[in-house]
Amino acid sequence: MKVKFLDLNWQYLSIKNEIDIAIKNVLNNSIFVGGKCVSDFEETFAKYQHSKYCISVANGTDALEIAIESLNLPSGSEIIVPANTFISTAEAVTRNGHKVIFADISPNNYILDTSLLEHYITPNVKAIIAVHLYGHPCEMDKILSLAQKYNLYVIEDCAQAHGAEFKNYRVGSIGHIAAFSFYPGKNLGAYGDAGAIITNDEVLNRKCRLISNHGRIDKYNHIIEGRNSRLDTIQASILNVKLKHLDSWIERRNQIAKKYISCLKDLPHITLPVISDNIRHSFHLFVIRTTRRDSLQKYLSSLDIETGIHYPKSLPKLEAFSYLNISKKEFIANEMDSKILSLPIGEHMTEDMVDYVIDSLLKFK
Ligand SMILES: *Cc1c(COP(=O)(O)O)cnc(C)c1O
Fold first, then answer.
1. 122/12 Cα distance (integer angstroms)
2. What is the whole-number distance in angstroms between the Cα of residue 181 and the centre of ligand 1?
3. What's the pLDDT tens digit per position in 349-361?
């Protein structure tokens, strides 16, 4: 049996009628940037994330970059970024003229280890980026209380956590500002690049809107020099359709995760993720850990089961960050990257597929 890691074609076919109609409507109206689809999406997505404002942008990296720019931090500020995340989180800091400070992650669930966080805070640190990695929300209460103590901004990177909740609060509505990606493979994905910023702060909303659309308040009336980072109308029409299905997809991901956990918990050579009990996980990824990662991945692949590695190199190890001259031994994240393996999870998986993955793992010698 073939088990794909991600099956966007399956997903498209499951909602083909709605999607085809939505795209056709955009073509018939021939409004390709902005318009009602985009404003509808912003309104619905803000509501979905329990936030006041949503500013749609061209991709998740731009969302992070523009969100940071809107905070107007002194140039050269330091911003805390987890050592295990996608590179965008750090790029957005550097591109704004700030300095990345890597913070270590917890080996239980791979998100920021809040027990270590205070140790990274210097007078130059002005913000923390909380990445809800794999869909597991960060411990936002602890992060917020540290932020209050040291007067820091909290930026949430929600690229993997649409719909996830910490203590009944939707991610992205908890810190000062948040970024989302709708890259096709995310839990809520467009058919190309797309992203959004959300915030409850009116001033930040206005700034992000100005930055992402040439600083304009009217067609040719520009009050600052901004840039072009907008959501295409076709992508917005697709996201409007998919957002209606997102909760059922997250539900399915949680069912699969629950089964993985209950059936694999006694395997001595596999460490399962520890899921906090006060959260709603979005299970963008289901990541296990084993010292025999490479042979396990090969074995699963020989049985037609696709897996992934997120991420093969922790950020401090990447050549891109060699200029920071940080000691690589410092981070737990640096040991994890040779052991982690992402199992297939998603709405495309039938119960037979889930059982097949579990049986295969149980038979691994
Ligand atoms: C995908 C992702 C991004 C970047 O989003 P793009 O839309 O690909 O630019 C940022 N942070 C994390 C954690 C991501 O997974």
1. 48
2. 5
3. 999 999 999 999 9
Rounded Cα distance between 9 and 7, Å, is 5
What is the strand order of the sheet 195-199 is part of? 53-57, 195-199, 177-181, 153-157, 125-131, 78-82, 99-103
- List, for residues 152-197, the tens digit of each pLDDT value: 999 999 999 999 999 999 999 999 999 999 999 999 999 999 999 9
Q: Are strands 279-280 and 221-222 parallel, antiparallel or unpaired?
A: unpaired
**Distance (Å, rounded) from C-alpha 182 to C-alpha 163?**
13
CA of 65 to the centre of ligand 1 (A): 11
Contact status, residue 198 vs residue 178, Cβ threshold 8 Å: yes
Distance CA 323, CA 293 (A): 30
Peptide bond before residue 53 is cis, with ω within 30 degrees of 0 = no
CA of 219 to the centre of ligand 1 (A): 30
Residues 199-245 have pLDDT tens digits of: 999 999 999 999 999 999 998 999 999 999 999 999 999 999 999 99
Ligand 1: residues with CB < 6 A are 59-61, 85-86, 88-89, 131, 157, 159-160, 181, 183, 193, 195
Residues with Cβ within 8 Å of 127's Cβ and at least 6 positions away in sequence, in order, are 68, 71, 73, 77, 79, 80, 152, 153, 154, 155
